């Protein structure tokens, strides 16, 4: 079965073809980061319009790369939510219009299920059950995953998401949106121990997180400085920030592994691309004797491959999920816990 995936929940247009027999056939992506950068964040209306412009050329690119014809597609999976309403509507109408034209069934996919299952696209793929740390721009959640659609929330952030903390702290240091990768690169050159930032909720006996205080701590240091920050100052602050956030994320993962007794930890979402986080998790995993799995770097942030894959996994369990009723709705707010099991 060949599934076309369409992702458009935020500022990336992603299309991909996944074959349940042969794996990922092709994928194509356009990131709008450069367009939004001058505004310091995503402008929803600009995002929607750009998805309109990009969808068809990306479809053509995917078809060409895969060597398949549109008629070879068995079903079309699109991100139904959560995300920006206008951006989601573009992807949904594109997918449903294409489905109608080709006479192929469609199905809506949950964006976070896409992120969550993206490590299964890598080799070796983790087997169920596992603990998943989802660290993206909008979410920070620890989950127990027993199968496709079987997600038990263990804990989540009470305020900012990890990616949001990266981006906001980066902005305070004068870095462009989205500052996650940039502040992380800056931290590599910084000195450890110059700034000791708080580790929010490190010792709370649950699996929840809180990152807004960390951003405030960075702001306090920036404001306290009487002269403009030197490059070295910024590097040291970045270092302190990254160390604090990584410490908390790793500690909570280790606790979740211990609490559940599971032996596999899976990381998903954009912050999963972070090198310092991967290093610290790998060290903890070998010490505590569990295995840790990551998506390929290119599939940590938003992409079409994870949507095609999640759609294909759902359809494998239940082909009746795909419909030729092309009326659609999107769900900008859609907690993963409200998703039906596959
Ligand atoms: P959600 O999936 O929750 O709706 P999103 O789709 O915006 O949010 P992702 O695309 O998964 O989130 O990830 C984007 C986030 O990941 C941004 O906050 C970005 O700064 C962060 N990020 C990407 N690469 C890195 C990195 N190397 N280090 C730290 N953060 C990173
Ligand atoms: Mg994005
Ligand atoms: Fe995302």
From TrEMBL:
Residues 24-309 form the Gcp-like domain. It comes from the Bacteria. Binds 1 Fe(2+) ion per subunit. Keywords: Acyltransferase, Cytoplasm, Iron, Metal-binding, Transferase, tRNA processing. It catalyses: L-threonylcarbamoyladenylate + adenosine(37) in tRNA = N(6)-L-threonylcarbamoyladenosine(37) in tRNA + AMP + H(+). One of its GO terms (molecular function) is tRNA N(6)-L-threonylcarbamoyladenine synthase activity. Its EC number is 2.3.1.234. One of its GO terms (cellular component) is cytoplasm. Fe cation binds at residues 111, 115, 302. Its cofactor is Fe(2+). Substrate binds at residues 134-138, 167, 180, 274. One of its GO terms (biological process) is tRNA threonylcarbamoyladenosine modification. It is found in: Cytoplasm. PROSITE patterns: GLYCOPROTEASE. SUPFAM superfamilies: Actin-like ATPase domain. Signal peptide: none annotated. Belongs to the KAE1 / TsaD family. Required for the formation of a threonylcarbamoyl group on adenosine at position 37 (t(6)A37) in tRNAs that read codons beginning with adenine. Is involved in the transfer of the threonylcarbamoyl moiety of threonylcarbamoyl-AMP (TC-AMP) to the N6 group of A37, together with TsaE and TsaB. TsaD likely plays a direct catalytic role in this reaction. This is tRNA N6-adenosine threonylcarbamoyltransferase. It comes from Undibacterium rugosum.
